[in-house]
Amino acid sequence: MSHVPVLEIGGTHVTASVVDTTAAGAAPLAVVRRPVRAHAPADDLLDAIAAVGAQVEVPAGAHWGVAIPGPFDYDTGIGRFRGIGKFESLHGVDVGAGLLVRLPGTPRRISFVNDADAFALGEYRAGAAAGRSRVLCITLGTGVGSSFLRDGRPVVDGPDVPPGGRAHRLTAHGLPLEEVVSRRAIRRFYADAAGLPGDGPLPDVHDIAASARAGEAPARQTVQHCFGALGQALAPWCERFRPDLMVVGGSMAGSWDLVGPAVREGFDAWGAGVAPPTVTALRPVDAPLIGAAHWALRDGTAALPAPT
User: Fold this and answer.
1) Inside any domain, residue 19
2) pLDDT value of position 24
3) Same structural domain, 171 and 255
């Protein structure tokens, strides 16, 4: 099985592709991306997801790889979405069974993988993390995604990683991390720093970044506060896990010229020499697709061999 059909399910979109896992760079052969209504009823959501999958050409009886955010039971394919503002209708639903009867070609199996892990595996197979033994991959978008990889396999338990291997479970300034570092938290902090009314329209993160580059004090204060907290939260775990590299993806990685120094200051506040070398993703768009394909290929049962 070298041509693997995959789905990447996000909070606002679904992407379908077929990935040639034997090609140099593990290139997706076709990519289709469509919006999805995260608050739709369960059957409507599953229909919409499968409809995107139906737009790529797949062989009968294929083994699909599906990247999907948590909370989700990746072994059983059952949604655990509750109180997170998206996919609530899939809570307790057997998503795997629902997709098996909806996807084209009567698939024989679906392997689910956390979307942050899929991103990390894609960067390991064909991106910035290739050839690295220990990697911390972070995605900065609506929230904070993370994956701690050891020899191409996500580490989700043990003393060297946060609970579940997930940085969003950490705290910063006495709050859950995503109450300090997330799209909503950054906008809220900026509004307070700039004295903006809480009930009015707020600038988005890219606008705040532009203002910070222009030297606006509230914007620069916001970047320093929020992303410095991220560095402080990650520092003790990097001291334990000792990653060879940290790879950063997600929409906010486009502002790494601002975000990076703030994160490093947060690391340095914990202790000198803790911050790992850091780069932005080489495959920011298709890394989750590549990672989901390789997860299906190996079915999550063995470490992926180092890329050649």
Assistant:
1) yes
2) 64
3) yes
What are the phi and psi torsion angles at 215 (to 5°)? 95, 10
92: phi then psi, degrees, rounded to nearest 5: 80, 0
197 — pLDDT class (breaks 50, 70, 90): confident
Residues in the chain: 308
Rg (CA), the chain: 19
Into how many domains does the chain fold? 2
Per-residue tokens: 159: 């003393």
The pTM assigned to this predicted structure is 0.91
Q: Which residues pair with 58 in a beta bridge?
A: none
Looking at the domain assignment, is residue 267 inside a domain? Answer: yes
Q: Please tell me the predicted confidence (pLDDT) of residue 75.
A: 93
Both 149 and 271 in one domain: the answer is yes
Per-residue burial over 59-79, b = 16 or more CB atoms within 10 Å of its CB, e = otherwise: eeebbbbbbbbbebebeebbb
